[in-house]
Design goal:
The chain is α/β, with parallel strands linked by helices. It contains 12 helices and 6 strands. It has one domain: Aromatic amino acid hydroxylase (Phenylalanine Hydroxylase, Orthogonal Bundle). The N and C termini lie far apart (40 Å).
């Protein structure tokens, strides 16, 4: 997998660090990412499509009464095929029609400046490779299942879509301690966020939605779930290597957008 991703990155004109799995090393762009209709097509193997089928099938079933309605509605809007990896150009067209977001092809984990810059333009940078069969339950870095199934689906929700762009615009100009705060805030919202609903607490964080183990863990008794508090979230330590012991709960996506505006303006951003 590492060599395939490295070769892909080199062919597209990106830098990566030799000898290290490029999925886990932030990659600095040396030229613009292909976007929308300019994204080159990729032919997937039968095994790669089967991996998508397995991941999609079990997550779709597991999330039925655990994911927020906005995410489940987003799945219907996006209409991903169940038995094969969708083309990024198709994902791009659907998002454009829905919330005027676009897709760009990323070689892996982007440097924050490039990732935030894309968000600021309403562009989500997605990988086009999928995890190996030995990583079905957990992968340490983004792949196209996490990016497409987890991330792009919720961008169909208008308030979340607007918040996501605003986050990129603000984060581009943040420095020092505040940039670190924003990274933590992102972790506890976009990746590991929960939301109150009339039916109880549901999942909207993309990292949870695309992770088989985190789905059941995040709603269990061992997790401390706290009210939405941007500053507390910004200062809360996070650890990618463990199941999350503390999570935060928003009341609505309107709150996420408006309270993010209020908090960042208070920081002078």
């Amino acid at each position: 997998m590492e060599s395939q991703v490295a070769e892909r990155a080199a062919r597209l004109g990106f830098e990566s660090r030799a000898g290290i799995d490029p999925r886990c090393v932030p990659i600095k762009l040396v030229r613009p990412m292909p976007e929308g209709e300019a994204i080159p097509s990729r032919r997937y193997t039968a095994e790669e499509n089967e991996t998508w089928r397995i991941l999609y099938g079990r997550q779709r079933k597991l999330l039925e009464c655990r994911a927020c309605e906005e995410f489940l509605e987003g799945l219907e809007i996006m209409g991903f095929p169940e038995d094969r990896i969708p083309a990024l150009t198709d994902v791009h067209r659907k998002l454009k029609q829905t919330t005027n977001w676009g897709i760009a092809l990323a070689p892996g984990l982007l440097a924050v400046e490039d990732f935030y810059g894309a968000l600021a333009r309403r562009v989500f940078a997605s990988t086009d490779y999928i995890r190996g069969r030995d990583e079905l339950d957990y992968t340490p870095a983004p792949d196209c299942f996490h990016d497409i199934f987890g991330h792009t689906t919720l961008i169909t929700e208008p308030y979340f879509a607007n918040f996501y762009q605003k986050f990129g615009q603000v984060a581009m100009h943040a420095e020092g301690k505040i940039r670190g705060w924003l990274a933590s805030f992102y972790w506890f919202t976009v990746e590991f966020g929960l939301i109150n609903t009339p039916h109880g607490i549901r999942i909207y964080g993309n990292g949870i939605l695309s992770s088989y183990s985190e789905v059941t863990h995040c709603l269990g008794a061992e997790v401390r779930r706290l009210p939405f508090d941007p500053q507390r979230m910004a200062e809360q330590p996070s650890d990618l290597s463990i199941m999350q012991p503390i999570l935060f709960v928003i009341d609505s996506f309107q709150q996420l957008e408006s309270d993010f505006d209020r908090w960042t303006k208070g920081l002078g951003l």
